[in-house]
Amino acid sequence: AQSVAQPEDQVNVAEGNPLTVKCTYSVSGNPYLFWYVQYPNRGLQFLLKYITGDNLVKGSYGFEAEFNKSQTSFHLKKPSALVSDSALYFCAVRDQGQAGTALIFGKGTTLSVSS
Amino acid sequence: DSGVTQTPKHLITATGQRVTLRCSPRSGDLSVYWYQQSLDQGLQFLIQYYNGEERAKGNILERFSAQQFPDLHSELNLSSLELGDSALYFCASSVDTGVGYGYTFGSGTRLTVV
């Protein structure tokens, strides 16, 4: 079975500081990995994805994520946080070898950026 | 506007009732996915359709059912509603079932069961 864990319910960071939102996953094969962001009263918006290749993936709004196969992690990072980055962030995974299955999402991490 | 349309945006109904949530996927997308978002369970996958056929099932209760029509819109039917069914229900679509493609999400239907 595939699963995703986001160990922190909330991450607090000051504006201008770097931020990290953690994600670990479990799949039997190789993973497809995604990050999505949800603003209040809105649907989820795609940020970035890892399919194959370079372990450092760059996405929207200055976010990036690093795929670490040995640690089964896909942490979301940004060098300098903005107040407008405050939102709910979801990590998602699917096993590349299991065609036709849907993305499995973590429970989400609330990012709060203070000015 | 993501291109995925969900109606209604809000729904308030009583326990024991039945409701239907509707989703129109983004133009060109053949796959539709339904998710339930609640505070304690996070985002739970319910069911997936591809070009009219059911492709995968997740944590969907027997009281819930769904279908995808020839015009590719999808409906999620929730019956014998309980207070615990109160949640935000999202529909997402993708071009294909292959997950080189990301999902595009609608803005959701907020269901309140009283």
Short description:
The complex is a heterodimer of chains A (115) and B (114). With 115 residues, chain A is mainly β.
Number of helices of chain B: 0
User: What is the number of beta strands of chain A?
Assistant: 12
Proportion of β residues of chain B?
over 45%
The poorly predicted ranges of chain B are none
Oligomer state of the chains in this structure? heterodimer
Number of separate helices of chain A: 0
Largest sheet of chain B: 7 strands, mixed
Q: Identify the overall geometry of chain B.
A: globular
Alpha carbon gyration radius of chain A: 14 Å
Summarize the largest interface: chains and residue counts.
A-B, 24 and 26 residues
Major sheet details of chain A? 6 strands, mixed
Number of strands of chain B: 11
Structural class of chain B, please? mainly beta
> In whole angstroms, how far apart are the ends of chain A?
41 Å
Q: Structural class, judged by helices and strands of chain A? A: mainly beta
Description:
The complex is a heterodimer of chains A (115) and B (114). Chain A has 115 residues and is mostly beta strands. Helix content of chain A is 0%, strand content 52%. In chain A, the strands form three sheets. In chain A, strands 2, 5, 6, 10, 11 and 12 form a six-stranded mixed beta sheet that branches. In chain A, strands 3-9-8-7 form a four-stranded antiparallel beta sheet, with no helix packed on it. In chain A, a hairpin with a 4-residue loop joins strand 8 and strand 9. In chain B, the strands form two sheets. In chain B, strands 2, 4, 5, 6, 9, 10 and 11 form a seven-stranded mixed beta sheet that branches. In chain B, strands 1-3-8-7 form a four-stranded antiparallel beta sheet, with no helix packed on it. The relative contact order of chain B is 0.33. The model of chain B has no long low-confidence stretch (mean pLDDT 92). The termini of chain B are far apart. By secondary structure, chain B is mainly β. Chains A and B meet through strand 5, strand 6 and strand 11 of A and strand 5 and strand 10 of B.
